[in-house]
Amino acid sequence: MTLLLVRAWMSMASIERNSSMITKIYQLNLRYSHVDLHIHSIYSDGKGKIDEIARKAKERGLKVIAIVDHSLDHPLGLNERKAIKRRIEMENAESKHGIRIFDGVECAILENGELLLPRHDFDLIIASIHSALTPTESYRRIKRCVEKHEFHILGHLHAEMFSLDGFDVEKDAEILDILEENDIALELNSYHRSPPYETLKLCENKRLLYSFASDAHEVGRVGDIDFSKKVAKIYLRKGRNLLDEIY
Fold this sequence. Notes:
Largest sheet: 8 strands, parallel
Strand content: 25-35%
Structural class: alpha/beta
Distance between the termini: 6 Å
CATH superfamily: Metal-dependent hydrolases
Helix content: 25-40%
CATH topology: TIM Barrel
Strand order of the largest sheet: 3-4-5-6-7-8-9-10
């Protein structure tokens, strides 16, 4: 089975506004269940070194991982210097352990949908709500973020620790439509067990992109994506994993 992975650095304006986008394509022989696209390292608030993470990923049979440390919005997040140093370690770990490691970042969706990024050519950008917000404010920020920036994955939608007063199913349907229209993946986050089941039920007939995520901050949790795989099989049968299968 061959999988097609689109590795893209996206500019900060939408395709509709004639932005430029450079795309690199890799052919990978793997099953999409061998992928964890949300891991943190010591370069932000994680506990694992890059080599330790790669070794554990190899032990667990993963073929592709993304290390997505927090960005400038986080007190321990990546800056340009740290991002360059981390990339060198990633390249060394790739060669040593024989797995693909994507150079990623997780950005908080700030007021008015802003994302703060260091100057660095990231392979993968995750945008996530990282403040405890009301549903109205959460939806407003997400929609503004999609309008103003390009990113690959919407992270841990409605994670309980960042949600006040629950969520609105009708507004969820609107957000899912926006993701589908803009080819942004919905993250299936095994740590936060998000999105909630009520939201996932809305995905059943959609051709949504989605991604698997352990959201590991400790080496022992690298590759813990059982929840992600389970809900994908139930609710996203018509969806497309970010690593699309080509037969």
